UniProtKB/TrEMBL annotation, chain A:
The gene is atpF. GO terms for molecular function: proton-transporting ATP synthase activity, rotational mechanism; proton-transporting ATPase activity, rotational mechanism. This is ATP synthase subunit b. It is found in: Cell membrane; Endomembrane system. Its main location: membrane. It comes from the Bacteria. F-type ATPases have 2 components, F(1) - the catalytic core - and F(0) - the membrane proton channel. F(1) has five subunits: alpha(3), beta(3), gamma(1), delta(1), epsilon(1). F(0) has three main subunits: a(1), b(2) and c(10-14). The alpha and beta chains form an alternating ring which encloses part of the gamma chain. F(1) is attached to F(0) by a central stalk formed by the gamma and epsilon chains, while a peripheral stalk is formed by the delta and b chains. GO terms for cellular component: endomembrane system; plasma membrane; proton-transporting ATP synthase complex.
TrEMBL record, chain B:
InterPro entries: ATP_synth_F0_asu (IPR000568), ATP_synth_F0_asu_bact/mt (IPR045083), F0_ATP_A_sf (IPR035908). GO terms for cellular component: plasma membrane; proton-transporting ATP synthase complex. Gene3D superfamilies: ATP synthase, F0 complex, subunit A. GO terms for molecular function: proton-transporting ATP synthase activity, rotational mechanism. Keywords: ATP synthesis, Cell membrane, CF(0), Hydrogen ion transport, Ion transport, Membrane, Transmembrane, Transmembrane helix, Transport. It comes from Sphingorhabdus contaminans. The chain crosses the membrane at residues 35-52, 88-113, 125-145, 160-178, 185-206, 226-254. Pfam families: ATP-synt_A (PF00119). Key component of the proton channel; it plays a direct role in the translocation of protons across the membrane. Belongs to the ATPase A chain family. HAMAP family: ATP_synth_a_bact (MF_01393). This is ATP synthase subunit a. It is found in: Cell membrane; Membrane. It is a multi-pass membrane protein.
């Protein structure tokens, strides 16, 4: 086995070159390059974590905005509904008032017309009485030749009309 | 690979051959094929990491691969040691990547180029021992630095009955002191055994094809070749697992030093 057979001749050379090579590896690669690579990896991990946190924050904010938007919408809907109800009630009241006014006007006109009618019919009645009295006096005069005064005829007609 | 007698020596792949002789202070520190493969590992690892240095916010494929490995080691250390483990990530990462790359480099089919032999750095006890000592030394330094002599309470686990106080610390001390050896031997043995097995099977394939009798290739070479495909895949898995085990045990030992059970 050359590893053991040659050990006395070669150990110095092996130690010497191994220490040089391993020293170079430790100081240039282990201490020089490795920390830079690790720093880069750490920076990337940190960036990813930061970006994730930012995204999470943005999402929470968006959620909040969505919630408040919905609340706004609901409130607006309530207000609109109340306004609509108000308007409806007002309109109904207005219509009622107008209706009542028109009713009253119509009632007044009706009453006036009725009064006119009554007056006219009373007047007509009165004129019928006088016409009847005159006719009665004329008839009496023609039939009996007796002169009947207007007053007598009127009272006679009155009496008949009151009965009939 | 083939010896003088035409036989295939499965141990030849572990032979260290000097490429450029060098002597410093009386020590022979020649640049060898082992040193060359350490350099190749360093280059490959540097290239791999360099590809992940673009530092884009959205990573490409290469950057994703590099970040996957760094994230894996980071996760392993912090889950064993806790948040304080961040400090030890460079060490564990260096150990893990060096062992992983060295294991894989030993598996690369460089042998198809004549005269080139892949060399598995981690199949050498000298190398795994240094890595284990680095791991164990870190545990000792961190333990005594943070806890002083109180670090020895590591050898008295919570809930030890008083009548076992003479035995448990001895066992704990022994298991603590054996850690560097188990770390070094585990990696060394796993890599050596795997490569020997692959080389023996490859020898079966080649010697079977060269045999005189016509039935030998069909009966020996073909099954060996099919088996070798499976063993190679298994060996690639072992490469990754051994690197993982070494790094995981190191981070668990560091956890002992930092948190004292």
């Amino acid at each position: 086995m050359p590893q053991i057979a040659q050990i006395l001749e070669t150990y110095a050379s092996q130690f010497f070159w191994l220490l040089i090579v391993f020293g170079l590896i430790y100081f240039t690669i282990g201490k020089g390059m490795l920390p830079k690579i690790e720093a880069n990896m750490d920076a990337r991990d940190r960036k990813i974590a930061d970006d994730l946190a930012a995204a999470e924050r943005a999402r929470a904010e968006a959620d909040n905005l969505g919630d408040s938007g919905e609340a706004d919408l609901a409130a607006a809907r309530l207000v609109a509904q109340a306004k609509a109800n108000d308007a409806k009630a007002k309109a109904a009241k207005d219509a009622e008032q107008r209706l009542a006014k028109a009713d009253a006007e119509v009632g007044a006109k009706l009453a006036a017309a009725e009064a006119d009618l009554a007056k006219a019919s009373a007047a007509a009645m009165a004129s019928i009485e006088t016409v009847a009295a005159e006719a009665a006096a004329d008839i009496v005069a023609k039939v009996s030749g007796a002169k009947v005064s207007a007053a007598q005829a009127a009272s006679a007609v009155k009496a008949v009309m009151a009965n009939g | 690979m083939a010896g003088e007698s035409g036989k295939i020596d499965p141990m030849h792949q572990f032979q260290i051959e000097p490429l450029a002789p060098l002597n410093i202070g009386g020590y022979d520190v020649s640049f060898t094929n082992s040193s060359l493969f350490m350099m190749i590992v360093l280059g490959a690892l540097w290239l791999f990491m360099w590809g992940g240095m673009k530092r884009d916010l959205v990573p490409g494929r290469w950057q994703m691969a590099v970040e996957g490995v760094t994230g894996f080691v980071n996760n392993m250390v912090t889950s064993s040691v806790g948040p304080e483990g961040k400090k030890y990530v460079p060490l564990v990462f260096s150990l893990f990547m060096f062992i992983l790359m060295a294991n894989f480099m030993g598996m690369m089919p460089f042998g198809i180029v004549p005269g080139v032999h892949p060399f598995t750095v981690t199949s050498h006890l000298t190398v795994t021992a240094v890595l284990a000592v680095l791991s164990f030394g870190t545990v000792l330094v961190v333990g005594f630095w943070r806890h002083g002599l109180h670090f020895f309470s590591l050898f008295v686990p919570h809930g030890t009955p008083w009548w076992l106080l003479w035995l448990i610390p001895l066992i704990e001390l022994f298991s603590f002191l054996i850690r560097p050896f188990s770390l070094a031997l585990r990696l060394f043995v796993a890599m050596t055994a795997g490569h020997v097995l692959m080389k023996v099977l490859a020898g079966f394939v080649i010697n079977g094809l060269n045999a005189q009798a016509a039935w030998v290739p069909l009966v020996v070479s073909v099954p060996s070749f099919i088996l070798m495909i499976g063993i190679t895949l298994l060996e690639l898995l072992v490469c990754a697992i051994q690197a993982y085990v070494f790094a995981l045990l190191t981070s668990l030992y560091i956890n002992d030093a930092v948190n004292l059970h």
